[in-house]
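Example record

The entry below shows one chain as it appears in the dataset: sequence first, then structure tokens.
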Amino acid sequence: MWHETAGDAWSPRPPLPGDTQVDVAVVGGGYTGLWTAYYLAAADPTLRVAVLEADVTGFGASGRNGGWCSALFPASLGTLARLPGSSRSAALAQHAAMRGTVDEVLRVADAEGIDAQAAKGGTVVPARTGPQWRRARADVEGARAWGRGEDDVRLLSASEATEVLAATRILGATYTPDCAAIHPARLVRGLADAVERHGVAVHERTRVTAIEPGRAVTEHGTVRADVVVRATEGYTASLTGHRRTMAPVHSLIIATEPLPAATWEQIGLRRRETFSDHRHLVIYGQRTADDRLVFGGRGAPYSFASRTHSTFDPSYSVFRSLHATLVDLFPVLADARITHTWGGALGVPRDWIASVGIDRGTGLAWGGGYVGDGVGTTNLAGRTLADLVLGRDTDLVHLPWVGHRSRRWEPEPLRWLGINVGLRAMTLADHEERLTRRPSLIARAVAPLIGGH
């Protein structure tokens, strides 16, 4: 749906013509790679920068996600503060940087004439059961303990929450202003055009098979570079030597037909707020600029040996579950036509901590591991990687995620077994809470194994 409405023919740019030499080779033409190239070119127009993309820019998660440009980060403040060399103030600095990133994305889109159909309405996260309401209150109490005020995140009563989002059985909600609903494909395709205007070479249909010190090996030739940036996220396992670096987990999405104004009056989202809820198995949604409801969630099983998929049968059970969940939230949509179903891979590091960094000895740099929170985080990654590559001593290069290295995932079949048990456990945890009306014991037991912090 995003691809069809991007106002773009998606015609591939020419592949790499053969062996070449550049200053910086960026592997991956999604948000991380393009933002890195954009800020490098802006900082030093004399740099020779090349982006190498296996398909077309925006083919993967950057062009098919749920369209949340948020301040969300996959690791908690407490986890960030406990990283080596970090502290409470460093974790808060990272959070502040993430909040500022939302506005930075919108600023660049405006400056470059990219119509990302953005609306910064924030995010509302209802609680619809007693255990969810306890988690909502605990989230806000935790934020206050970190000095985060009402301007950052606040608790809404049932009536306040329903005024924003009229879902069923709402007990209350949390709300943050730090999110913009965007059209992700328009953003990534516009960003690709912008980096080309700034002198960056973008080579599509150029699959990189190996990244080595001083070079990226492709099917069309070798690109030699002082710095090679790995920006491959959910597709990292396809690179030689990186099978266990990142686990690709698939998220699936459905989209309705454009809904009439009368239906939106019953649902809400008047400022195009994004929404989720406080269940364990992640769901997410937004109202698009053309009045569709885009709704996604996890639940698709992890594929053995880190295989990725870009197409899914429309009758797939996860799509049926998403539709049932959507109708449970909004009964008025029971007869609304679902026009599109799709999905794709996101990248999950073993400890669920996103990171950026550079190895000065080898010239190898990296960014990724966003666990689905990448639309905003990639921009911070791109700015930080640009500073690292250029050797700048800025506040960004001292944030706690810089230089962090997650341990590798377990070999198969342990990886397949562990990830799928975790995904199934989160589904069971939500069922358990509906039956017992108490916080899930299953979720408590599994949380340390699947990134709960």
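Notes for this example: The chain is about 35% helix and 20% strand. The first helix runs from residue 31 to 43.
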